[in-house]
Specification:
The structure holds two protein chains of two kinds.
Chain A: E1 3-9, E2 17-23, E3 27-31, E4 36-41, E5 45-47, E6 57-61, E7 67-70, H1 73-82, H2 96-128, H3 131-152, E8 161-162, H4 165-179, E9 189-193, E10 200-203, E11 207-211, H5 212-217, H6 221-237, H7 239-257, H8 264-275, H9 281-297, H10 303-318, H11 325-328, H12 333-342, H13 352-359
Parallel strand pairs in A: 9-11
Antiparallel strand pairs in A: 1-2, 1-7, 2-3, 3-4, 5-6, 6-7, 8-9, 10-11
Helix pairs in contact in A: 2-7, 3-8, 4-6, 4-13, 6-9, 6-10, 7-8, 10-12
Chain B: E1 15-20, H1 26-39, H2 45-59, E2 60-62, E3 65-66, E4 68-69, H3 73-103, H4 105-136, E5 138-140, E6 143-147, H5 151-167, H6 173-186, E7 188-190, E8 193-197, H7 201-225, H8 227-236, H9 242-245, H10 247-256, H11 261-284, E9 285-287, E10 290-294, H12 298-334, H13 347-386, E11 388-391, H14 413-417
Antiparallel strand pairs in B: 1-2, 1-11, 2-3, 4-5, 5-6, 6-7, 7-8, 8-9, 9-10, 10-11
Helix pairs in contact in B: 1-2, 2-3, 3-4, 4-5, 5-6, 6-7, 7-11, 8-10, 11-12, 12-13
The chains are: A alpha+beta, B alpha+beta.
């Protein structure tokens, strides 16, 4: 029978005494020289922790407060053979019920936050944001977005902004014509950025970024006018502002859950959020409807806009790109159909000369 | 400095040392924690923290018997879930400030102050509660530690002394430190026995002034010498193009950096003060007839910190060289660069930047975390342990296990403010 020297604390006082420990068939016996002072059933013996580097072994009874500490490697070897649950947890069982309750509560709270609170908060916050502030926010965001774009989908020239004089004039006149009836809170600031992406997006504070890829892809001025009207409608409804507020808060909450102390997720998420801006279906429908109205009020035919969608869908079929207009605006044939149906006809948005100038804005 | 008359405890008191005896390989434990935290997208951090604590508790031996940490990762996790709601409010507030800071510095500044005050208050609550949890999961010879007392009372003391600190421009800090430590200590127990704490702020004042006065005077001097520059900065603040438009603005901004100098040196002074305070607080604490003493030295801790600063510096330089080499190989391999530099950013440097960022966040940053344990925290902890002694530890034999209830779940708030271990 194996036996060893050990130190024993009875769990009632902070006294520690030298004892002998021994194993029999059913239990571990603690003997203080005169008598057996404790008897631990083998099945109840647990390791307090894995043996320490210098050979100290600490054991206890399941959920018990007594402690035994010994050094003897031979005794430990025989204890491992004798005690069946030695490596099991010494604590009370995992509180699955409590965990479940709180996990459920937390998930529900997050779901409510993301589904109801944040959208509403973003709406209220963006409505309360003074125009001046929103403009400054837009400037700040557009800097970052343009820089990111140029890395993801580089253009042809070292300069980011396309501003050939004649092209800029026609762009401004087109924008002015479309925005005349939009009654915006602040002047629009539309720029063409030299990037190969076929896309355009609205940013907070009346900023609209049109990418060279879209200017190249558009075959008629009306195609471009449709996209511009749609983006102006987004600006009107302050969708980009809402989105940015929503996205940045979301990033922070996600960072919180995953323990992101450096805030990298928030930071990286913000730029990506605007590029890959996914508005709700309702927001897109609103922008489509208002965009069409703007086109009609300006006397521009909206049918071409639907054509652009159809051609883009074909191009996407041949060579899908995650960075195109369709990727963030769901390409429903229904959408093109709705636009086509609602269009009453109208004139060309730009004269041929102006359109040529606009096509060459990046040269 | 701490010349104490050893006559009081005349009858040759029994002195026990605290030993630091590494329980197992810390480096391996930290690597495992890192890998699992990464794989679980951070959720493992509660279990990681628990494992690290268990390691340290098991490595600290009093009278040859290690401490025992009985906390569990799942308790911390549930604690975190419980305070998630509070944190979400903070998330919203924080993002609001981040935006305002870019667009409206004045509202952002006001909000920032409110945010900071709420944060400081919450940190106090969190630390007090975290201490209660940690103590309740700490055993020695099977006997539990514990802490009671009211979090709100503690917060009241904190706010009262913070107000006093504002009125006295920080001179009253030692009294605040003593008051808060006293509240914590007299509500701390081992088994059924509560600690006693008899310290006075006045005794700490000279040491505090040695830290406080040079920083205040040096800062005042720097502000006075650079007053023109600061006024210029004030005038130009908010104009992003200021640097380009006014060449003297750059000089002013550079002068502005001097203001950080006293604080940089102040770090060492602060460590020195905290160690002096620690020794004093240890000396003033008693557990029944058991007394404590620490001879830990601020100089030694500062030396460890300096060594780490140099070490980190060299690691960063090595990392920079490595990135440069990788970028170079990329550039050569893809034939980018050369005489006719392409007008748009070529793919190779972009890839190198992405690789660099990934390497930094996935390898270098966690590596620093691991190294900070191995070369900073452990050496300091070792020093603190080895210079710590107990008087009359035999009196512990009379201390009885307490039946007072322990908190059920973990630290919640404290996790989110990340106080280390």
């Amino acid at each position: 029978m194996s036996e060893a020297a050990a130190r024993y604390s009875d769990g009632r006082t902070a006294k520690s005494r030298d004892v002998r420990i021994a194993l029999n068939d059913a239990s571990l016996l603690v003997h203080d020289g005169n008598e057996t002072i404790a008897m631990w059933p083998l099945a109840e013996i647990r390791l307090v922790e894995r043996p320490l580097k210098d050979g100290i072994v600490r054991i206890c009874r399941r959920e018990g407060e007594e402690r035994l500490t010994f050094h003897d490697a031979a005794f430990y070897a025989s204890l491992r053979l004798a005690a069946p649950n030695l490596a099991a947890t010494p604590y009370e069982p995992t509180p699955w019920r409590t965990l479940g309750i709180w996990l459920g509560t937390a998930v529900a709270a997050l779901a409510i936050l993301f589904a109801f609170v944040l959208p509403h908060f973003a709406e209220v916050a963006s409505a309360m944001l003074p125009p001046k502030l929103e403009q400054r926010m837009g400037n700040w965001i557009s800097e970052g977005v343009i820089r990111q774009l140029r890395v993801i989908a580089p253009g042809k020239r070292p300069k980011a902004i396309c501003d050939a004089a004649a092209g800029s004039r026609s762009l401004q006149s087109l924008v002015g014509r479309l925005a005349r009836h939009a009654s915006l809170r602040f002047p629009l600031h539309v720029r063409v950025v030299d990037s190969s992406m076929v896309n355009a997006f609205a940013l907070p504070g009346g900023q609209i970024v049109v990418l060279r890829g879209l200017v190249d892809f558009a075959q008629t001025p009306n195609e471009l006018a449709g996209v511009l009207a749609h983006e102006i409608a987004h600006v009107k409804f302050r969708h980009p502002t809402e989105l940015v507020i929503k996205q940045s808060t979301t990033g922070f909450v996600i960072g919180l859950i995953f323990g992101d102390v450096i805030g990298a997720t928030t930071f990286a998420g913000m730029g990506a959020a605007v590029i890959g801006a996914t508005y709700t279906r309702a927001a897109e429908a609103d922008a489509d409807r208002r965009g069409l109205e703007l086109l009609q009020q300006a006397g521009i035919d909206g049918t071409a806009w639907a054509d652009l969608f159809d051609r883009l869908a074909k191009k996407e079929e041949a060579m899908p790109s995650a960075l195109s207009l369709l990727a963030n605006h769901p390409p429903t044939p229904l959408r093109a159909e709705l636009i086509r149906k609602a269009s009453h006809g109208g004139e060309e948005a730009l004269s041929l000369a102006d359109w040529r100038a606009l096509k060459e804005i990046c040269d | 400095m701490d010349a104490k008359v050893e006559g009081a405890a005349a009858a040759a008191p029994q002195v026990e040392h605290v030993a630091y005896q590494p329980a197992r390989s810390l480096a391996l434990l930290l690597l495992k924690n890192y890998a699992l935290t990464l794989v679980t997208l951070g959720i493992y951090r509660f279990w990681a923290k628990t494992a690290v604590r268990r390691y340290f508790w098991s490595s600290i031996r009093i009278a040859d018997e290690p401490l025992e940490y009985t906390g569990r990762g799942i308790e911390l996790f549930i604690g975190f879930l419980i305070v998630l709601a509070v944190l979400i409010v903070f998330a919203v507030l924080n993002s609001a400030i981040k935006f305002l800071a870019q667009t409206d510095p004045i509202s952002a500044a006001v909000l920032q102050v409110v945010y900071l005050i709420v944060l400081i208050v919450l940190v106090q609550v969190a630390m007090f509660r975290a201490r209660r949890y940690r103590l309740s999961r700490t055993r020695w010879r099977g006997i539990r530690c514990g802490q009671d007392g009211s979090t709100w009372r503690y917060l009241g003391i904190f706010l009262l002394y913070s107000l006093l600190g504002i009125v006295t421009l920080g001179i009253s800090t030692p009294w605040a430190r003593v008051a808060l430590e006293r509240y914590k200590m007299v509500h701390t127990r081992f088994g059924d026995r509560y600690f006693a704490f008899e310290a006075s702020g006045l005794k700490l004042l000279p040491k505090w002034l040695v830290l406080y006065l040079p920083i205040v005077l040096a800062t005042a001097l720097i502000v006075w010498l650079n007053l023109d520059n600061f006024l210029l900065m004030q005038k130009l603040s908010g104009d992003p193009d200021a640097m380009r438009k006014h060449p003297e603005a750059a000089k002013a901004a550079l002068a502005f950096l001097w203001i950080y100098l006293p604080f940089a040196f102040g770090i060492f002074g602060y460590v020195w003060y905290r160690l002096a305070e620690f020794r004093y607080f240890v000396d003033c604490s008693r557990l029944g007839e058991i007394g404590f003493k620490s001879t830990a030295s601020g100089g030694v801790v500062n030396l460890i910190i300096v060594a780490n600063i140099f070490g980190a510096f060299f690691v960063l330089i090595a990392f920079g060289i490595l990135i440069a080499i990788v970028a170079g190989i990329f550039a050569v391999a893809t034939g980018a660069g050369g005489a006719g530099a392409p007008p748009t950013p070529p793919a190779a440097p972009v890839a190198a930047i992405i690789v660099g960022v990934l390497v930094f966040f996935l390898i270098v940053y966690p590596l620093f975390g691991i190294l900070s344990y191995l070369t900073l925290r452990v050496p300091i902890l070792k020093h603190l342990c080895r210079r710590f002694t107990f008087r009359n530890l035999g009196a512990a034999d009379q201390i009885v296990q307490s039946s007072a209830p322990s908190p059920k779940f973990g630290e919640g708030l404290a996790d989110s403010f990340d106080f280390g271990f």
